[in-house]
Request: fold
Amino acid sequence: MSGYFSYPDASLQEELKKTAEAIVVPGKGILAVDESNEGIGKLLASVGLENTENNRRRYRQLLFTTDMLSENISAVILFDETVYQKTDDGTSFIDLLKKKNIIPGIKVDKDVVPLYLSEDEVTTQGLDDLAQRCAVYKKQGCRFAKWRCPLKISEHTPSVQAIQDTAQILARYASICQSQGLVPIVEPDVLLDGDHDIVRTQKVTEVVLAAVYKSLNDHHVFLEGTLIKPNMVTPGQACPKRNTPEEIATATVTALLRGVPAAVPGIVFLSGGQSEEEATVNLNAINNVQLKKPWALTFSYGRALQASVWKTWAGKDENIKKAQIELLKRAKANGLASVGKYQPGDVTTAAGDSSNYTKNHKY
Reply:
C-alpha cells in the first residue's frame, strides 16, 4: 500500500538493537574521545605539548591501554584520525578496544557553522558524504556513530528555525547511519550557557525532544537501534539559583518521559561542562528518582571522565599509570551512578570538583 514503509530488514534490525543494548548494559557507559584536532590541541597546550599527530596518539594510547577499562566502559567514541592510529607496538586502536570487549564508535558530524538569518545560532554540517564515510567506518570496525547539534538558550533562542533544523539534521543523520549498519547516537545538546533557570531549561529540552522524535519517526528511524545523548536539565551557568541533584533529576527524567519513546534502549547523558563529581552525583540522582524510567540511564562523558587524567598525566610518560588510575576511579564512580549506587564524595580525583565549563564549547 502506498504511504506505508518498512524498517531495515530483520537481520539489520537485530544487529542494530544488539549493539545499542550492549552499549547501555548495567554499570557501564561511554568514554567520549572524539575531540577534533583543534580541540585536543588546546588540552595538549595546557600540559606544555605541541599539537602533533604523535602527541594526540600518545594521549589516546594512555586511555585505551588502561587495564580493566572495560569494567565500566562499554564503548568509546573516536575521532576520524583515531580510527587509523596505532599503539607503540603497532596494534590498531580499534583492534585494541575490541580485544578489551569495548565497542568502537565514531563522531561523524563536521562541526557547526552559523545558521543563516538566526540570532547567533548554529547548524551542524557533514550530511553530504555521510553514507560513504559511514560505510568506511563500518568496514574499519566501528559499530555506532555520534552527531552533535548544540542549541543555545537566550531571550529569543532557541528559535523555531534552529529547533526544526536540529530535528531534521539529526533524523537524516540517524537514517543514513542505520542504512550503513551503524547505531546512531542522537545528540541534541541544550547548552549550559546563559542565566536561565531550570524551569526554562526543562521546557526547552521538552520542545527539542518532541521535535527530534517527530522527525526521527518521519524519517523511518528504527528506534530500538538508536541511543540519545541529551543534556541533563540544569540551570544556566550564570543562573544565581543552584538546584539540588534531586531537583535536577526530577526535571531531567520528567522531560525525558515527555519526549523520549520507551522503545529507545538507553539515554547516555553528556556532561555538558559540569565538574567530574557534579556529573557523577547528578547521574546517580537521576537513577534514584522515583519516576518511571523505561530506558537505561547512563553516561557518555568526555571532560567529566578525563579532566583528572589530563591534570595527572601533564604530558609526562612517568605519570601514565597514575593518570590511568584517575580514569578508572572516575569510570567506576560513573558505573555505580548509572545504577544509582554512588555515594557522593566516595571517589576523589585530581580535578573532581573543578569546573569543566567552556562558553560555546566545541569538541
In short: The chain has one domain: 28-337. Strands lie at 29-33, 73-78, 103-107, 112-114, 122-124, 144-151, 183-190, 227-228, 266-269, 296-301. The mean pLDDT is 94.
